Amino acid sequence: MNNLFTANLAEVDPVVAEATNNEVKRQANGLELIASENFVSEAVLQAMGSVFTNKYAEGYPKKRYYGGCEFADVVEQLAIDRAKEIFGAQHANVQPHSGAQANMAVFLASLQHGDKILGMNLSHGGHLTHGHPMNFSGINYEVSDYGVAWETEQIDYDELLRAAEESRPKMIICGASAYPRTIDFEKIAEIAKSVGAIVMADIAHIAGLVAVGLHLSPLPHCEFVTTTTHKTLRGPRGGLILCREEFAKDVNKAVFPGVQGGPLVHIIAAKAVAFGEALREGFKAYQQQILDNAQALAEELKNQGLRLVSGGTDNHLILVDVFQNGKGITGKVAEKALDEVDITVNKNTIPFDTNSPFVASGIRLGTPALTTRGMKEAEMRQIAQMIASIIREPESEEVKTKVKRDVAELTAKFSLYAHRLRGEQSESISAS
Ligand code: DSN
Asked: Of 76, 145, 153, 202, which one is the catalytic site residue?
């Protein structure tokens, strides 16, 4: 037993160890362009893999249901204080296991079963938890939706006002998972006020940008702000709720015991580390580089003749219409062809899509992960050319061979977690 307890992963479980090593190689040797992914620092990885995973700590700092929580209290309080400082929030709950559970807790804290909600349509860039019929949000509440205008492919605030006046929701949900433009939280809050609704802003994708003032903050305008912690914010996989003090008690009760049991203390420790990183000098420059990279990628994709939904981007993500009303290829074909050359993207519906979500007319690209690796505008232009050549000729073995080689050459210049394969303890990832 002792041997097993102290042996390393490769000895105890070679299959999992091998899969883990293969995943390190996959991440290092490919171009990660999934807009919701990022690479955490070695310090965040270490906190996630710490002995805090052994600890039960139901409750909140200094008010726990279990003994032995004094160090769990240290990391949770640190995460709370840092989250409040980053976003200028009066209250933070750092326990949600995910963005979906953060959203679920806000619903529980502020709505009654069957209340009306108004959320952004998933196919226009919204999220499952914003009222999709297959999700708790669509099952337990009466949903209306809003979306983007046909001509601009940007949020139609007049239509949002009209929809709010018609449905008189108790809550408007804003924030998106595939929307490349700035969201006017102030205007949405004004609309909500005019119909007596509250607002939940889900900033999962743009949290890092909001943290450093490179996207408007919803905090002064919206009652509830939720986010994941692993996208632009570059922390561990998890959720976070921010609100004013007046809602603190209800939010805390909704998270625990409302929708969760024991918090993941190891993840909360890693959130504290990541939030500390976000407060350091360099994080704003990192976020600015994400934006600069997205601009460079978008411009070169357009130069290559590709159509971008809404014509471009204001944030970290780009939606490319690869289908072009049947003249091009589907998102599904594009995703697979790019995968074959080690460029990772996801197929994505575009507004008013005529293809199903499993096929989709678009692909979604984002720059947070490659920016963490240290890539800049020149690399983005090169990547845009690679993507365009694959989309133009997805069947060509000659093109695929060339692009795969180019990807290998590029990734070799920007090392990532290489020490993990060598079995070394730590080495920082390239950027920041
Ligand atoms: N799955 C996330 C994304 O990719 O945006 C949203 O939850």
From this structure: 202
Q: CA geometry: angle at 161 spanning 158 and 166, to 5°?
A: 125
pLDDT tens per residue across span 14-35: 999 999 999 999 999 999 999 9
Pocket test for ligand 1, best of 32, 34, 36 (most atoms within 8 A of CB): 36
Ligand 1 geometric centre to CA of 42 (Å): 23
Residue whose CA is closest, atom 5 of ligand 1? 177
Q: Which amino acid, residue 178?
A: A
Ligand 1 mean position to 396 CA, how many Å?
A: 31
Q: In the predicted model, is pLDDT for residue 271 greater than 70?
A: yes
Residue whose Cα lies nearest atom 2 of ligand 1: it is 36
Distance (angstroms) between ligand 1 centre and the Cα of 35 equals 8
Catalytic site residue 237?
yes
Q: How many helices (H) and strands (E) does the chain have?
A: 18, 15
Q: How far apart are CA 219 and CA 362, in angstroms?
A: 32
Set out the domains of the chain in order of their start, with CATH numbers: 51-278 (3.40.640.10), 282-418 (3.90.1150.10)
**Other Cβ atoms within 10 Å of 294 Cβ, number:** 25
In the numeric block, which tokens belong to residue 170?
């108790």
286 is catalytic: no
Q: How confident is the model at residue 379, as a pLDDT?
A: 98
202 is annotated as an active-site residue: yes
Residues of the chain with pLDDT > 90: what percent?
Answer: 95
What are phi and psi for residue 226, nearest 5 degrees? -120, 160
Mutational pocket test of ligand 1: of 97, 98, 177, 345, the residue with most ligand atoms within 8 Å of the beta carbon: 177
Q: Are 294 and 258 in contact (CB under 8 A)?
A: no
Q: Residue 314 C-alpha to ligand 1 middle, in angstroms?
A: 18
Classify residue 51 as exposed, middle or buried by CB count within 10 Å of its CB (0-12, 13-18, 19+): exposed
pLDDT 10s digits, 174-228: 999 999 999 999 999 999 999 999 999 999 999 999 999 999 999 999 999 999 9
CB under 6 Å to ligand 1: residues?
A: 36, 99, 127, 177
Rounded distance between C-alpha atoms, residue 321 and residue 363, angstroms: 7
User: What is the percentage of the chain residues whose pLDDT exceeds 70?
Assistant: 98
pLDDT for residue 173 is more than 60: yes
Does the structure show a pLDDT above 80 at 425?
Answer: no
Ranges of beta strands (E only) in 162-230 are: 171-174, 198-202, 224-228
Confidence (pTM): 0.96
Instruction: Point out the catalytic residue in the list 20, 56, 292, 427.
Output: 56
